[in-house]
Input
Amino acid sequence: MSTRTVYLFVGPPGAGKGSLSWQCVDQLGWKQVSTGDLCRSHIQGKTEIGKKIDFAIKSGKLVSDSLITDMVSDWLNVNAQDESSFILDGYPRTVGQAELFKKLLQDSFSDLRVVVIVLKVSDSQVITRLGSRVLCKNKGCQAVYSTRPESPYFPKQENLCDRCDSELIIRHDDLPEAVAERLKSYHHHEKALLDYFDYLKFNVITFDASCNPEVMFKRFKELVGNV
Ligand code: ADP
Output
């Protein structure tokens, strides 16, 4: 039996799904895809899909289940053909998407083992994190920083990326109204989604994501090592 695993990262905006994913890519050699990044690259590339979803993304609303599943399916068909484990960051996030994903697994990736990772963090922490989040303007980099000096993500040079020296900018959907919408949407879907994962008998691991990124990665490795 294959030991290939797909990890589904679930959690509110700002929980640290992206940061944890990149640590897994850099240090464990896994692959990852973030559906938020896929959406943003359509917008930046001014594709037909990008034009359709621009407003939803900026206002923090969800893109349709079928559109987002098509993006994931395209990514999987290109990237999930070898033996590596990989992460889907931010997908599925509704029961409708989970149903489409289950079908995709059955049809094309029936060898994959699924592990769901749920990152828990309070709304007030999300608001603090996203209210101070900036990211590298360079599309090929997009590293994430914080404007709070006490944060481990505070850049070494003011408003410049540590990796490529580009300017740091605020993501449009990190403005307070869009953050409120994203949080509302997350809470609206979370319970039904987790119940559905239970029903599918997916292995679900929940852990506290209020800690710093190094501690989170260490805990994550301990947890998945035991699965
Ligand atoms: P967040 O931390 O809010 O989840 P992401 O970068 O993952 O940020 O997503 C940004 C936006 O992209 C979301 O607010 C939504 O508009 C869209 N998006 C990303 N993933 C999905 C998904 N699985 N279903 C629907 N829309 C999505």
Observations:
- The beta strands are 5-10, 31-34, 86-89, 113-120, 133-136, 144-146, 168-169, 203-208.
- The longest helix spans residues 176-199.
